[in-house]
């Protein structure tokens, strides 16, 4: 009798210890990691604009410019596209973008640590989002993007400012992970039908002032 009570008590204690882990559902973990990333991205203006020479641009693949208009276009044109596919593209593209930014920053540059911190946060996000490819083949168009981003000798290069790349990252994040962000967090409408130019929910001059 005594022994079974002790066993029961032990089991109960064990349960109490495990419970918080069970309550931390995958969704909670995903949103926590994204919110941490969101907070860090708030510092992008100082780190990617003010700490860099005026109008400084870096060379990136066409595919590394991943904006809301791209999302709308892919949604409209690719059959069997799932949100998870777009989230995977977002993760890949932005990790490549960070690598490119780091390549031009000396270790002692004031934005270096900020950029490596972002890389770490991206890795954490990736850990809680199992890639779609574990379950099914992504659509061909998506596979093509993966391939092109990894190509070393690409024909399609563009010069863009690091700040605008991180702006894309920030805006698309709010639209691709709607479960984690409220609509007030968004700077722009997520559904953009007039691609290639998305109508902003803000008046245009105000919007361009914000993106500077
Ligand atoms: C930076 O770019 C803006 C807009 O394209 C331009 O008006 C400005 O003259 C440029 N500044 C320099 C220093 O090149
Ligand atoms: C996004 O659209 C631009 C053209 O507006 C294109 O060059 C780029 O490859 C697209 N990015 C992706 C990831 O599809």
Automatic annotation (TrEMBL):
GO molecular function: macrophage colony-stimulating factor receptor binding
InterPro entries: IL-34, IL-34_sf
Protein keywords: Signal
Entry's Gene Ontology BP terms: positive regulation of cell population proliferation; positive regulation of macrophage differentiation; positive regulation of monocyte differentiation
Any Pfam family: IL34
Signal peptide residues on this chain, from the entry's feature table: 1-31
Keyword Signal: yes
Gene Ontology CC entries for this record: extracellular space
Keyword Signal: yes
Gene3D superfamilies: Interleukin-34
Cited PANTHER family: INTERLEUKIN-34
Designated name of the protein: Interleukin 34
């Amino acid at each position: 009798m005594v022994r079974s009570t002790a066993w029961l008590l032990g089991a109960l204690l064990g349960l109490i210890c495990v419970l918080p882990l069970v309550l931390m559902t995958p969704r909670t973990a995903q949103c926590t990691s994204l919110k941490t990333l969101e907070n860090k991205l708030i510092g992008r203006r100082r780190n990617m604009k003010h700490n860099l020479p005026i109008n400084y641009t870096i060379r990136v693949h066409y595919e590394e410019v991943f904006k809301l208009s791209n999302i709308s276009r892919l949604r409209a044109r690719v059959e069997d596209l799932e949100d998870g596919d777009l989230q995977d593209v977002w993760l890949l593209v932005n990790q490549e973008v960070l690598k490119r930014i780091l390549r031009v920053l000396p270790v002692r540059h004031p934005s270096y640590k900020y950029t490596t911190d972002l890389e770490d946060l991206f890795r954490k996000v990736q850990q809680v989002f199992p890639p779609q490819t574990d379950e099914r083949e992504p659509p061909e168009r998506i596979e093509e993007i993966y391939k092109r981003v990894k190509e070393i000798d690409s024909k399609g290069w563009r010069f863009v400012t690091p700040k605008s790349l991180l702006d894309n990252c920030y805006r698309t994040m709010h639209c691709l992970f709607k479960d984690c962000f409220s609509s007030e967090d968004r700077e722009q409408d997520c559904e953009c039908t007039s691609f290639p130019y998305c109508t902003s929910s803000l008046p245009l001059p105000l919007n361009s002032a914000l993106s500077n």
